[in-house]
Amino acid sequence: MLAQRSSLSGSPRDGLEYGRRAAALLERAGDRWWLGTTYWATAVNHALLGEFEPALEAAARAQALGEAVGDPQAQGSATWAIGIVRASRGEWAAGIEACRRSLELAPDELNVAIAAGWLGYAHLEQGDASEAMPPLTRAVDLLARFRFPQLQGLFTVFLAEAHRLAGAVERAGELAAQGRALAEASSSPFGAACADRTLGRLALAGGRLADAERHLDAAFHAFEAIDARFELGRTAVERAQLARRRGDPEGSAGHLTVAQRLFADLGVPVHVARTRELAAELGLRLPVS
Fold it and tell me: Which pLDDT value is given to residue 285?
């Protein structure tokens, strides 16, 4: 349970240590259901850190244990964990399919809400706002009833991103602010950082460069404190866009170099390629990763 809590409270390194200790005890006890839950929590903590291969390994073990005990909830949680990793790495079809399968397995409305939220996230990672909005809206509405503010806040931010991609800027800003308030009230620094990044993107698009800097800096430092290196890389890309708008190509290249290094270290070639493509569009040269 502490491993699960750590993933929500922005302490994934602690979560991995709790998971390691729990797994050792549960292996001895022979409790396969709780062991599967432990591996699922471990997978989520690895994913928050951008450690995608260990996350997939832990989620696969959780999935196998869920199948062994015949528990659809355990199987479903492991399956959406696999889905978010696949989608984050740019394997969008596999990520969407895993999250859709998780939704089919969900035995109750709480698990429906969680699976639907991650399905929306997977569509969002593919850049498909129209497909992302319905499951994210469903998830946010259900989680409000269950009073689960950490995930409600995070999925509200993802819904804001979907509206931003669709061009509904005003609504995106409202949702991002709502998501940030929920994340702050529930001590969820990851959700708050995601909200700040969305608010920064909106401010940048609207030409409010000082606001963009404030939000993007807040997001970057929050992700840095969590050691969420994948999200750190994505936020560095946004800071590069801001630097370019300010007529600072050297600063822009510096931020993109940071992003490229993080993505290369984490083994996400799709994001390395995107970073280099953006640099080329901006007329910048990056070191070979």
Answer: 87
Show the CA angle centred on residue 279, arms to residues 276 and 281, nearest 5°: 115
Looking at the whole model, is its pTM more than 0.90? yes
Q: Which comes out higher in pLDDT, residue 33 or 287?
A: 33
Alpha-carbon span 48 to 71, nearest angstrom: 25
What whole-number distance in Å separates Cα of residue 172 and Cα of residue 183? Answer: 16
Measured CA to CA, the distance from residue 47 to residue 30 in angstroms comes to 26
Cα–Cα dist 36/19, whole Å: 11
pLDDT for position 114:
97
Phi, psi of 288 (to 5 degrees): -70, 130
Interhelix angle 72-88/109-125, rounded to 10 degrees, is 10
Residues contacting residue 65 through CB under 8 Å, at least 6 positions apart: 32, 33, 35, 36, 39, 74
